[in-house]
């Protein structure tokens, strides 16, 4: 049963995807299978989290080959928390897609591809093997390629070219890094690698080089400075259901891999990595938020904010204290939920008004007061106003920074918070507050017809907001869990002993 | 042989970067393919080359006889080749579609998604 529990987040999307392929002609059946799979995935990941919370790190060896020879799956608190946020996001996006995505895209394999994407996310979070990490990343990237290009409109194709090219290069860096690690240490099992790098026989220069390969590869996937330019160029191009999922989860999986590798394996030369991460985190935050400030499109502002928020997650890794890592973990969870929700809200607005351009929008507060409240909550969470969720993440990071006297990065992060409020206020003013500009009557008629769909579009937004409010207002258990997860990450012995059964 | 291969890898990498930085779509595809090849070759060489010894355990033995080639890099390589092949074919089809809908082969014509929308 314990082994099954780790496998379930991988098996459910896999079987869901296979089953929905059998119903290629019936979108309704695919929707049903998809929703069922999402519900099961959510239950399974919560069961996994409670199990780990009670019994510590869980491992299983696929095919019963003992570690380090076989393929290991490891679930610790960090990975389980990412899997849960991924499944909450997946559920919300699925509910949104039923009415929020056009029929043509739904009939061309949207549901199975999204499930395979979730398979990749779960796999990347649960694997305990470096090469498997690469394979799972490929699984999820190929699905992202397909989803971004699905439908083939001009902006989508343009975004897809940029996304595919840069990610293919990132993949090559990742492979080269894996090659260097295997060539120097002779293993691919993360736990065994963690043991090997701590032995005196390890070659620190080569391991450092491999670490830099991984930093570039996952840095591109996580969109850290200076490797983020592909993100604002491609994330806003597909329909909002697809953008919301990709924007919510994919960069954070890259961040997950960075945190995992740089707490478990590449910890031997922190004189190099910590200053490097600090500088990268600062630039990522500042440039992301400045980019957002210059944009006039709902989705593009949100896309740039992804970059800015990635900086905060990297900041936790740069400070490298238990509290800082816990702050990063909490921040990742918070950001997955909030970012997806903001994208979904922009989708609901666009569904009603037919545009994302701030200039053409307006008066949403009068027409959709509930939506305005939901946006208000999410935007304040993103900006980090207490008592909403972003505050706790930023508080933990800032406190950790002050504890080890890293004042500059903390001040930068707080200034970036102010800039985030500026961007959110801009959206609030332009979309919700100001009077709606005169538009042509044809569009009015079109939006009138869409009215009756709107109710169902609210459902996922409400669900996500409930989760956001929960982790904000009742942050205690989530923060405690993030701190436990950080302990597990920084105390590599726990991970090594769990996998190698010493 | 071991001395030649790193140079080949270096040449492949530099050629691929040169081609990717070109504006023409076709050169972009070639560059991506070359960089995939270079990485695969790198993975192969860094797993250490052992010639003429396969890691097959004979019928009368319990362990393979030294020296034998490490099978793990070869297995990684096979996986990487397959995945790379899949992505490369996707890219080729994608670029064909882009060419069909934009009617251009110049990457510089594709900068609209980066631009800030004008004020009306």
Description:
The complex is a heterodimer of chains A (502) and B (120). Chain A has one domain. Chain A is mostly helical. In chain A, strands 1-2 form a two-stranded antiparallel ribbon. In chain A, helix 1 runs antiparallel to helix 5, helix 3 packs parallel to helix 14 and helix 14 packs antiparallel against helix 16. The two termini of chain A are 22 Å apart. Chain A is globular. Chain B is an all-alpha fold and 120 residues long. Chain B has a domain of 81 residues: Orthogonal Bundle (Helix Hairpins), CATH 1.10.287. Chain B contains three helices and no strands. Chain B is elongated, with a radius of gyration of 21 Å. The mean pLDDT of chain B is 86. Chains A and B meet through helix 6, helix 7 and helix 10 of A and helix 2 and helix 3 of B.
Itemize the secondary structure elements and their pairings.
The complex is a heterodimer of chains A (502) and B (120).
Chain A (H helix, E strand, L loop, with lengths): L1 H21 L4 H29 L2 E5 L8 E5 L1 H24 L2 H5 L2 H17 L3 H20 L4 H32 L4 H8 L6 H19 L7 H5 L5 H25 L5 H24 L4 H22 L2 H32 L10 H4 L1 H15 L5 H15 L3 H27 L7 H10 L3 H20 L1 H16 L1 H9 L2
Helix pairs in contact in A: 1-2, 1-5, 2-3, 3-5, 3-11, 3-14, 3-20, 5-6, 6-7, 6-11, 7-9, 8-22, 9-11, 11-13, 11-14, 12-13, 12-18, 13-14, 13-17, 13-18, 14-16, 14-17, 14-20, 14-21, 16-18, 16-20, 17-18, 17-20, 20-21
Chain B lengths: L3 H17 L4 H22 L24 H32 L18
Helix pairs in contact in B: 1-2, 2-3
Name the structural class of chain A. mainly alpha
Are there runs of chain B of 5+ residues with pLDDT below 50, and where?
A: none
**Largest sheet: spatial strand order of chain A:** 1-2
Which bin fits the share of residues in helices of chain A? over 70%
Shape of chain B: elongated
The termini of chain B sit apart by 64 Å
Q: Encode the helix/strand succession of chain B as letters.
A: HHH
Distance between the termini of chain A: 22 Å
Describe the main β-sheet of chain B briefly: none
* Radius of gyration of CA atoms of chain A, rounded to a whole number: 22 Å
Q: What is the ordering of alpha helices and beta strands of chain A? A: HHEEHHHHHHHHHHHHHHHHHHHH
Beta content of chain A comes to under 5%
Radius of gyration of chain B: 21 Å
Average pLDDT reading of chain A: 89
Helix content of chain B: 55-70%
Number of helices of chain A: 22
By DSSP, the count of extended strands of chain B is 0
Q: For the residues shown, what is the average pLDDT of chain B? A: 86
How is the quaternary structure best described?
A: heterodimer
> Structural class per helix/strand content of chain B?
mainly alpha
Largest interface: A-B, 45 and 39 residues
């Amino acid at each position: 049963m314990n082994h099954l529990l780790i496998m379930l987040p991988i098996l459910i999307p896999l079987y869901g995807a296979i089953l929905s392929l059998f119903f290629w002609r019936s979108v309704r059946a695919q929707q049903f299978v998809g929703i069922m799979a999402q519900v099961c995935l959510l239950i399974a990941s919560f069961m996994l989290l409670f199990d780990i919370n009670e019994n510590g790190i869980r491992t299983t060896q696929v095919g019963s080959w003992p570690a380090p020879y076989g393929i290991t799956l490891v679930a610790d608190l960090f990975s389980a928390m990412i899997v849960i946020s991924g499944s909450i996001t997946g559920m919300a996006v699925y509910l949104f897609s039923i009415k929020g995505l056009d029929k043509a895209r739904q009939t061309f394999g949207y549901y199975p591809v999204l499930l395979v994407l979730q398979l990749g996310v779960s796999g990347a979070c649960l694997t305990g093997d470096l090469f498997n990490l690469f394979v799972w990343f490929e699984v999820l990237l190929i699905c992202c390629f397909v989803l971004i290009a699905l439908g083939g409109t001009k902006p989508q194709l343009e975004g897809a070219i940029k996304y595919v090219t840069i990610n293919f290069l990132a993949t090559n860096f990742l492979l080269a890094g894996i090659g260097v690690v295997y060539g120097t240490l002779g293993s691919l099992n993360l736990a065994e690698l963690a043991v090997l790098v701590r032995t005196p026989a390890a070659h620190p220069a080569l391991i450092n080089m491999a670490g830099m390969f991984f930093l570039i590869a996952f840095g591109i996937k996580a969109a850290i400075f200076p490797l983020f330019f592909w993100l604002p160029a491609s994330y806003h191009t597909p329909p909002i259901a697809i953008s919301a999922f990709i924007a919510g989860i994919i960069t954070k999986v890259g961040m997950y891999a960075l945190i995992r590798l740089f707490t478990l394996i590449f910890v031997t030369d922190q004189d190099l990595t910590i200053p490097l991460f600090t500088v990268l985190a600062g630039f990522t935050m500042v440039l992301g938020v400045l980019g957002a400030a210059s944009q006039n499109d709902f989705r593009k502002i949100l896309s740039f904010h992804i970059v800015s928020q990635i900086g905060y997650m990297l900041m936790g890794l740069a400070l490298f204290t238990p509290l800082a890592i816990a702050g990063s973990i909490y921040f990742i969870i918070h950001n997955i939920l909030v970012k997806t929700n903001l994208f979904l809200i922009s989708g609901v607005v666009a569904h009603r008004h037919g545009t994302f351009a701030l200039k053409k929008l307006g008066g949403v507060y009068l027409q959709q007061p509930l939506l305005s409240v939901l946006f208000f909550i999410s935007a304040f969470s993103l900006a980090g106003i207490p008592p909403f969720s972003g505050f706790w993440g930023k508080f933990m990071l800032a406190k950790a920074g002050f504890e080890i006297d890293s004042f500059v990065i903390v001040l930068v992060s707080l200034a970036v918070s102010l800039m985030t409020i500026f961007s959110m206020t801009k959206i609030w003013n332009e979309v919700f507050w100001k009077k709606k500009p005169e538009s042509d009557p044809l569009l009015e008629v079109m939006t009138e017809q869409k009215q009756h769909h709107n109710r169902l579009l609210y459902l996922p937004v409400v669900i996500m907001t409930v989760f956001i409010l929960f982790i904000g207002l009742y942050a205690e258990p989530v923060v405690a869990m993030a701190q436990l997860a950080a302990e597990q990450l920084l105390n590599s012995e726990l991970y090594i002993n769990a996998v190698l059964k010493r | 042989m071991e001395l030649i291969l790193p140079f080949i890898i270096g040449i492949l990498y530099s050629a691929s970067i040169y081609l990717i930085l070109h504006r023409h779509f076709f050169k972009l595809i070639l560059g991506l393919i070359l960089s995939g090849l270079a990485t695969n070759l790198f993975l192969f060489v860094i797993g250490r080359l052992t010639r003429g010894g396969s890691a097959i355990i004979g019928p009368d033995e319990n362990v393979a006889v030294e020296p034998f080639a490490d099978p793990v890099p070869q297995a990684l390589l096979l996986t990487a080749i397959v995945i790379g092949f899949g992505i490369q074919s996707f890219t080729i089809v994608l670029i064909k579609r882009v060419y069909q809908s934009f009617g251009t082969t110049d990457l510089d014509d594709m900068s609209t998604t980066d631009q800030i929308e004008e004020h009306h």
